[in-house]
Each structure stands twice: as structure tokens, then as C-alpha cells.
Specification:
The protein is mostly beta strands. The chain has one domain (about 5-50, about 65-95). Helix content is about 10%, strand content about 50%. It has one helix and seven strands; from the N terminus they run αβββββββ. The chain has one helix at about 5-15; strands at about 15-25, 35-45, 50-55, 60-65, 70-75, 85-90, 95-100. The chain has a seven-stranded antiparallel β-sheet. The radius of gyration is 13 Å and the shape is globular. The model has no long low-confidence stretch (mean pLDDT about 80).
Length: about 100
């Protein structure tokens, strides 16, 4: 069985992935605003995961996601959907990484 770290490494190898951030808690049947960014996943030498997004006008947005030990991470690989990694920051912001 693959671990969260295995899934992050697979996402890092993809040319494009998506980062979604949701404000608040998602409850069944309730819509929560989600912001989506297209980009790439990278890992720094110290083990920190970074999501880097760039737009057609040349602007860059980067999110330091932290190390696996910094947050509560989980992941799933659903064949009919996508490889998805979830983590909750110590604040109420939820970020989701998924393949295209």
C-alpha cells in the first residue's frame, strides 16, 4: 500500500497538478468555496513541499506546504477519479493536491 510520501512523489513527477484550498470544514451536502491553482509540486533539500504556480502573464504564486511532520496529511488513489493528497494546516485552511 502506498504512503502519503509515495503519492507526493508521484505528484511531483507530473507536469501539471492542481492545488485546491477550502476555507472552513466541508460537510456532506454543503458547498464550501474552493480556490484552485494549476502548477507543479517540488520538494526542497530540507524536505519541505512547495507548490509553484505560474500564469500566462508571468506572475508566480508559490505555497510552502511544509514537511510531512508539519500537518495532518492523508492521501488516496482512486482509479476512476485521481491521486489526491489532503492536509489540514494548523489553521482552518484545507489544501488539496490532485493530478490533472
Amino acid at each position: 500500500m502506498a504512503t502519503v510520501e509515495d503519492h507526493l512523489r508521484r505528484l511531483r513527477e507530473l507536469r501539471t497538478i492542481y492545488l485546491g484550498s477550502s476555507l472552513g470544514v466541508t460537510l456532506p451536502g454543503q458547498a464550501v468555496p474552493t480556490f484552485w491553482y494549476e502548477g507543479r509540486l517540488e520538494q526542497s533539500n530540507d524536505g519541505t513541499w512547495i507548490f509553484r504556480s505560474s500564469s500566462s502573464d508571468g506572475s508566480i504564486v508559490a505555497f510552502t506546504l511544509g514537511r510531512l511532520t508539519d500537518h495532518q496529511w492523508s492521501s488516496e488513489d482512486l482509479p476512476r477519479e485521481a491521486l489526491t493528497c489532503f492536509f489540514k494546516l494548523k489553521s482552518p485552511l484545507l489544501l488539496t493536491l490532485t493530478q490533472s
